[in-house]
Amino acid sequence: MPPTTVDAVGLEERAGVLSTRSIKKQAKIQGLRLAIACMDLTTLEGKDTTERVRQLCGKALRPDPDDPSLPSVAAVCVYPSFVRTAKAALAESPVKVAAVATYFPSGQTDLAVKLEDATAACQAGADEIDMVIDRGAFLAGRQREVADEIARVREATRPATLKVILETAELGTYDSIRRASWIAMESGADFIKTSTGKVQPAATLPVALVMLEAIRDFEYDGGRPVGLKVAGGVRTAKQALQYLVLVKETLGDEYLSPARFRIGASSLLNDVLMQLSKERSGAYQSEDYFTKD
Amino acid sequence: MAQRLSVRKTLKLFIGGSFVRSESGRTFACELAGQTVHAARATRKDARDAVRAARAAWAGWRERSAYNRGQIVYRLAEIMETRRDQFEQALGIAGASATAAQREVSASIDRIVWYAGWCDKIEQVLSTKNPVASPHFNVSSPEPTGVVAVVPPPAPALLALVSTCVPIVCSGNTVVVAASHEDPLATITFAEAVATADIPAGVINLLTGYAAEIAPTLAAHMDVNALDVWSSDGEFIEKLAELATDNLKRVRRHAAPREIFWSGAKAQGLDWIEPFVEIKTVWHPAGV
Predict the structure, then answer these.
(1) A210 found inside a domain
(2) Domain range for residue A114?
(3) Do the Cβ atoms of A287 and B246 come within 8 Å?
(4) Is it the case that residue B16 has pLDDT exceeding 70?
């Protein structure tokens, strides 16, 4: 169990201070390229179609058709029913396919159904599984149950990368977030992830900092390195840079890679592309010149 | 009774319905006839923020019924009428005589009323049914251009500001104004009227400072659709027009004559509205 409680005032202060760092010119370009490389380009809507997912995969492979030097994103993140579509569209590329599973986003069903959901996604070809924890059980104090569930999903989905969504907005306090992070890491998570994106407020800087510190302490404590995925509410290039600063200052440079850090987002990519274009041409950009999906 | 502390107004920018300082914190000193005032000196980032606000406001403003836009523009005239003293005082500080100030405020309010009446007539007057040599109905109608950047002439400070912005706004565009540095007081007083006149936040954004600093940013900005620039400096105008080519902005350029603004015949008319609408033509098959 995590040995300490969280100093909320100090935490928010530190997150606030780190968010004011000014990153310009060449450093900004490097940061934005890294943000793209660490991005899980996401579409998780009831109205998703195979065409939309295919379109998204095209964008994931080459974010800006005018700039082939830009990296591909790390992964596309879709509902399980679109895993085959995405897998086919991304064949032979390094871009991974992540599927949300375990009755996303609520996680309110029987364990058997959740396991079935996750294994089906793996069988369809998903490289990564984004599972949700049972927040109800966690808040009711049944933490062993949460841990067991994560461990069962972990076993069922090997060798896929497992990201565990804590849905921090529903956990209430920083202490709970730290505790839930710890449980997820002990139970085998490869990444811990802030939110589903379906509950507000989703990712925030202080929440990300709590989780990063939990990751750091878990590793010091004899655990293994675990990654962080921030998701939900990260819409602007500026926010993405703030998260990169937070990761660098808490865990160091080796965590600034898609193997250890992800940003789950949909509209963020366009803003990053607009900022990169602004750095190239000097003129502020318009959404009119970027694909909507 | 104890002596009161003096309460002085900070002269700020007007962006997205809020009065804000320049993000840089900069101000500039402006020597007016009556006193020296310090107003916010907008930067290119302020210009960017203003364009963002104008873009966000555009969808809502253009989708309002034309009649409702007319009501709101008329409301601006109502508000200015009740704030006459403040406007006259502002123009007085800038050097206008009491009579001249009264005359300019009256002319400005009258101009707004005139355009308020136009809002719900633009579409009827500019729309056409076109004769075509094929079995089609062919009709054209105007739509607002989008976000328009305005560099108004320095004088007459209030009347020129009103005469350039209001016709652009009344057809459903939103504006970002890089106001002249010569009289920021008139601009800010106008902003206060706009802020209280039910004009949705972001429809009119007013930046004080040096147009030479911020107009190039607006001219090059890909999310600005048109540029209305008044300047006696031909080279400056050409430079802006060149920057505006990247996204094929509509550019209307003028020298900066003071006199035309006093003449209703010259300074108000459909030809002040028309440059900032796009004519959309629809071909519809006619049953033969």
Answers:
(1) yes
(2) 8-279
(3) no
(4) yes
